[in-house]
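#structure-requests
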Amino acid sequence: MRLAISVYEYPPKIVGGLGTYAAEITRKFVLLENDVSIFTMNDDKGELPTREIWRGIEIHRPLHIDVSDSLPDVIAEDVRKWGRGIQFFSKVLVYNYLSAAKIVNDLVKKEGFKYDILVAHDWLSVIAGVTAKRELGLPLVFHVHSTEKGRTLGNGSEVVTSIERRGGQMADLVITVSNAMKDELIELGFPKEKIRVCYNGVDPEKYSPDQVSEAKRKEIRESYGVKDEDKMILFIGRLVLVKGVDKLIMALPHVLAKIPKVKLVIVGLGDMEEHLRNMVRGLNLEDVVKFRFEFVPEEERIAHYAACDLAVFPSLYEPFGIVALEAMSMEKPVVVGASGISGMREIVISSGAEQCGFHVNPSDPVDIAWGIVSSLQNPDRKHELGKNGRKRVLSEFTWDAIAKKTLETYSELVKEETN
């Protein structure tokens, strides 16, 4: 198939899990003999190439024009309240309309490109997809990786929610990342008959314990002051309320009462940085909690997984949770938030012969502590949980398997449209 894919982040501009997902799955699409064109954001300075071929994929990045001064008179009060955030909204709008114009006017009408299907990821790109669909009459797939209401725990923008809902109505097919998310979309008014579930994946060759030397593993531990006899707990992710990092810190006194030699390493960026520092100070945990306020490159991230004894992700809302897969692929047990909308509840088996981790209530520090202690108390059990996690990744969550299923779903839509 020939795919025109709109996605807000794409290498080298990666902000979070969406960029990783897009890079991995589109590479697999090409290896499976599909033609892929990507329409993505340029960087803030407009210094990335506006058109290039990378790993067999043609990438288009429009140059940004700042239209924020003209927006207050034409946009909803909801967006005007964003303050400086109106510049971000401006960038998103311009990126979408320039991308749609590029697809329709330049590539299809002028250069004679012929696409089979349009693909858009999240609200950040679906305006481009809807616009191109109207002009070209091509089928549109809308991938929903999370929702505004979920990300903000119900306090988000009604404008963004409306864009998401419109995308669901205009798309011919909606793909989401877990059954938990499918239920949420139906609740939000997305047409049930359009929704399909395709999980995310991980590269088990890259995310493998064999890829990290013992020297590198020790180097990571020593950099945080973690001794050989200490148990290292790892959190990697955005430091925002929805990720539950504050509750993880609050769980530590309960953990320390049963396992005194524990260190928690928190890696990531977000608006809770100062709040988390103050929490650690208030709980006298400066010797226990180690922060690294950075977005670390993938190789370094893999080394962190190798260095830890346990990965904990107590998210209050997590449509999928690719970090849990990464840790499992590295043979580490995982403790995950499993209340509300939680794709991690589907990823992590929490009982029986194939158990690879524990489900906890992310709002309850005592329950989080129970999951941590249960994972770490018995070294043999910890090892078994890790081995089971990697087995599960290899059987269910490789990018090869995920890409094939996603392409099959696209193909079914194309066949329906051409019949």
